[in-house]
Design brief:
Chain A has about 170 residues and is an alpha/beta fold. Chain A is about 35% helix and about 15% strand. Chain B has 15 helices and 13 strands. Classes of the chains: A alpha/beta (about 170), B alpha+beta (about 450).
Chain lengths: ~170, ~450
């Protein structure tokens, strides 16, 4: 393990885009009361994949690599919808996932928001409407915000989440 | 004989069932009014899902089958509807009444069941795992999938090959380049041209880069699931570097749209320097991780798939190679000349799969060195001859098989078998004797695709 700590000291902090931290500080002060009241100072996200190619999930996983480290902004992914403020929905909403997505949405306590991620849930990806697809998501869910891209890069997702917080003003 | 796929094609008055083995291919024509065929699941257990899918897709009765449950069609899918038949042309489908699905379960005193999914705890694709437990010990597990079933095989019917490409490259995000190369091989066959060497080298470079990224994600997540988060921090940083390299070469972090008939001029110097740096990082990682006994205590002997079982279940990819089964599409003169070395291990456990991945990362870096070429290249390919074309590609998960039949210049039947479709069926063999806390490790060490499997 000594070898690791040596490497760790030599590498230092690799996080990029320190600007995000300023952004969140600004949003925090602007939304101080709101965020405190609604999110207890941090935003909890339940990611639900309703039939994506897995690229959106890979990019959300990349949000926690040392270069982005989303949690430093107080935004984190949680394991249960019951712990979440926001449902982050990716994928085309397949026939087979429809009821499970609706179930997850119902389990999120009020107040809650649905954010769509990537081109699939709004049917902008190259997939055609077919018998196996129930999209677009907004036909079935009250979508509060949309983050476009196929898939949106980690940076775009972070910008999108911050813009969503701003839109709550 | 290794089973590769079993699928059907609607011929109007007949339904053709094709059974593809590694060396031969069998074709049988069934009466379209009452299609029935004998099961081959007794000799090839991996045929079970193919045959259940045949029943769902075409309404074919499987004689002698011991599992007649629907596979692709879930609880609310209308009965007696077979979407892959040519006559099925519904644009929308209404939910039918709920029909419960009977899970495989072990009975007995004190045996209980644990259901996991379809929405899992982390950021992961939807699928369902059903365990039979005796205390901590797993007795049996059933894998249930197809939550992500997007009907892609039907969706691309009637499209031209070029039109279908954006859809095909989005079947599975982690294997996008592999799917695109399969598409390229089919398009080249249909046009009656050979893919020229500069393009083959460039695409092979991208495929190894995709493997590099995918393997690093796993090399981080496997130790992470054993409670060793530092490895994930290290490995996910390298995976991110790979993604950025992919973006700088192809304009997309996952390489969507990267495989075309032209290639830009490449500045090779910075890439060669990057490859050398990555080789050093990989060597450091290996030296570090191999030296942590508490981690290897979790990885060794966990989730073992024995050699004879891997052969019996026709496994492919890392899952097969870690059990000493040398299956790899890259076993060709082209790849061997460019530095490819088959990576196998004997034990077939989580540790062996981890070591195969690490060895493959290092081998990929070597190959990328030799695949890299500076010059630009471009060609025109358009004409698509009628006929049936097949392609094999070694994706980061294993052997990918694709079949396209072209009629009147458009796709008449599209079939893709993701490596996961075979390996998912062998996953339950790795469970008995392990505890449920080892399941995440076992699952992650195989790292199978849900999207590619469900299609």
């Amino acid at each position: 393990m000594l070898r690791f700590w040596e490497k760790r000291a030599l590498t230092g902090v690799v996080t990029e885009h320190r600007g995000f931290e300023n952004d969140i500080a600004q949003i925090r002060s602007a939304l101080k009361d709101e965020v405190k009241k609604r999110f207890a100072g941090s935003l909890a996200i339940r990611m639900v994949d309703s039939g994506s190619c897995n690229a959106c999930e890979a990019e959300c996983n990349a949000l926690s690599n040392p270069l982005y480290d989303l949690e430093r902004l107080g935004i984190r992914f949680v394991a249960s919808p019951r712990h979440a403020d926001v449902m982050l929905l990716s994928g085309v909403l397949t026939f087979n996932m429809y009821h499970h997505v609706m179930d997850a949405w119902e389990q999120i306590p009020e107040p809650k928001w649905c954010i769509t991620l990537g081109d699939c849930p709004v049917m902008q990806a190259p997939f055609r409407q077919s018998f196996a697809i129930k999209g677009p998501a907004e036909a079935h869910l009250p979508v509060a915000y949309h983050i476009p891209g196929c898939p949106p890069s980690p940076e775009v997702i972070m910008r999108g989440l911050l813009a969503f917080l701003r839109s709550l003003d | 004989m290794r089973l590769i796929a079993r699928y059907a094609i609607d011929r109007g008055d007949a339904i053709e069932v094709v059974t593809r083995y590694d060396e031969t291919s069998e074709s049988v024509h069934l009466d379209a009014k009452a299609p029935a065929i004998s099961t081959i699941a007794t000799t090839h257990p991996a045929a079970i899902w193919f045959e259940r899918k045949l029943s769902d897709d075409f309404g074919i009765f499987i004689e002698g089958a011991f599992d007649r449950r629907p596979l692709v069609h879930h609880e609310r899918f209308p009965k007696n509807l077979h979407p892959m038949q040519k006559s099925f042309a519904q644009n929308t489908l209404d939910f039918a009444e709920f029909t419960p699905y009977k899970f495989e379960a072990v009975g007995g005193d004190g045996v209980f069941e644990v259901a996991v999914g379809p929405i899992h705890a982390g950021i992961i694709e939807p699928g369902h795992f059903h365990f039979s437990q005796a205390g901590e010990d797993m007795l049996h597990q059933e894998v249930r999938h197809f939550y992500k079933y997007r009907g892609i095989e039907k969706m691309v019917e009637g499209m031209k090959l070029a039109e279908a490409k954006p859809i095909i490259e989005r079947i599975s995000g982690n294997e996008s380049v592999a799917y695109q190369i399969a598409w390229r091989d089919i398009a080249a066959q249909a046009a009656g041209v050979e893919v020229p060497l500069p393009l083959r080298r460039y695409h092979a470079f991208l495929l190894e880069l995709e493997r590099f990224i995918h393997h690093w994600i796993d090399l981080g997540f496997i130790p992470n699931d054993a409670g060793f988060g530092a490895a994930l921090a290290y490995a996910s940083r390298l995976a991110e570097e790979g993604r950025r390299m992919m973006a700088s070469l192809s304009g997309h972090r996952f390489g969507f749209g990267a495989v075309t008939w032209r290639k830009q001029r490449i500045e090779t110097k910075p890439i060669l320097a990057w490859l050398e740096r990555m080789a050093k990082e990989a060597a450091w990682f290996e030296e570090w991780i191999m030296d942590i006994p508490s981690l290897w205590d979790r990885l060794d002997t966990t989730g073992r798939l024995r050699h004879e079982k891997a052969v019996k279940y026709d496994c492919v990819g890392v899952v097969a190679r870690a059990g000493g089964v040398p299956v790899d599409v890259r076993m060709t003169p082209f790849y061997i000349e460019h530095g490819y070395r088959m990576q196998t291990r004997a034990h077939g456990d989580v540790g062996a799969r981890f070591k195969v991945r690490l060895a493959e990362v290092k081998n990929s870096l070597e190959m990328m060195h030799r695949f890299l070429e500076r010059d630009a290249f471009s060609m025109e390919v358009s004409f698509a001859k009628e006929g049936r074309y097949e392609a094999f590609v070694e994706s980061s998960l294993g052997e990918l098989y694709m079949m396209v039949e072209i009629e009147d210049g458009a796709i008449d039947r599209f079939f893709a078998r993701d490596p996961s479709f075979i390996n998912w069926q062998a996953l339950h063999l790795m469970m008995p004797g392990n505890i449920i806390a080892d399941f995440p490790l076992i699952n992650k060490s195989c790292d199978l695709s849900y999207a590619g499997n469900d299609l």
